[in-house]
Design goal:
Largest sheet: none
Structural class: mainly alpha
Distance between the termini: 56 Å
Mean pLDDT: 82
Order of helices and strands: HHH
Low-confidence stretches: none
Helix content: over 70%
Number of strands: 0
Strand content: under 5%
Radius of gyration: 19 Å
Length: 66
């Protein structure tokens, strides 16, 4: 029984570590964009910001850093 728990634990650690940090950053960015869009729509504002893709966001960050 202990062996099964240990193997399961290593399996979970492997799966978690295989998720790339880039994927996590992209998902976080898109989630924040969605929340902002929903808040704007709930306020019935006609001046909601245009959503920026993660790739465009990264390009702008690189350009500013130069």
């Amino acid at each position: 029984m202990q062996i099964i728990k240990i193997i399961s634990l290593f399996g979970i650690i492997f799966v978690i570590s295989s998720c790339s940090s880039e994927s996590l950053k992209r998902t976080s960015y898109e989630t924040l964009q969605n929340i902002g869009q929903q808040q704007c729509e709930n306020e019935l504002s006609s001046e909601c910001q245009e959503r920026e893709s993660y790739d465009d966001y990264q390009k702008k960050r690189k350009d500013v850093g130069r």
